[in-house]
Amino acid sequence: MKKTLYCMVIAVVVFLSLSVSAAQPPAPGEPFPALKLAVPAERAHRAYLGLSAGEFFEVPQIKARVVIVEIMSMYCPFCQQEAPVINELYRLIEDNPRLKGKVKLIGIGAGNSSYEMKVFREKYEVPFPLIADRDFAVHAALGEVRTPYFIGVRVEKGVSTVFYSKAGGFGEAKPFLDEMLRLSGL
Predict the structure, then answer these.
(1) Which residue among 25, 67, 133, 172 has the highest number of C-beta atoms inside a 10 angstrom radius?
(2) Rounded to an integer, what distance in angstroms lies between the CA atom of residue 74 and that of residue 161?
(3) Looking at the 3D structure of the chain, how many domains does it have?
(4) Would you say residue 87 lies in a domain?
(5) pLDDT averaged over consecutive 10-residue blocks of the chain (186 residues)?
(6) Rounded distance, CA 91 to CA 105, Å?
(7) How far apart are CA 149 and CA 25, in angstroms?
(8) How far apart (Å, rounded) are the C-alpha atoms in residues 101 and 163?
(9) Do residues 93 and 177 lie in contact, with contact meaning Cβ atoms separated by under 8 Å?
């Protein structure tokens, strides 16, 4: 009897600890988590995001109405394959006077160092900021999602709300941008 009760208590404790500690990816309608991200060292990337020099920033500080966040890894073959499509998405946004300054992209490299992000950025000619998440802290806070993973965030008056949250590549840049604009209400 004591042994059975002991086993039941252990099972309940393990179940509760697993269910409490497992973060879920942010869902549409939820606030984007308050995550401290390293301010990019490159002046052009700080200017693109509308950030002044500093150590950390949060997504609502980005000067944009919509932020598309890609959770990626330089070692992810799907992220490597998707890089040209995401670069095209960036160009579609930046070449459109109605969208430039209103929609921004950032990549967060799960388990990647600043050096690894620099290598990826140079190899795939990524024009937007890639933020290192060397210790997987951001990745864990976002539910340890598979890569690539895209999160669309609407920023209004310092508040960030998720409107899109999905794993995997998105195929073509133009239909994805149209969907982001539709879902965000921009």
Answers:
(1) 133
(2) 27
(3) 1
(4) yes
(5) 47 40 82 93 93 88 96 95 96 97 97 96 97 94 94 93 94 96 94
(6) 11
(7) 10
(8) 19
(9) yes
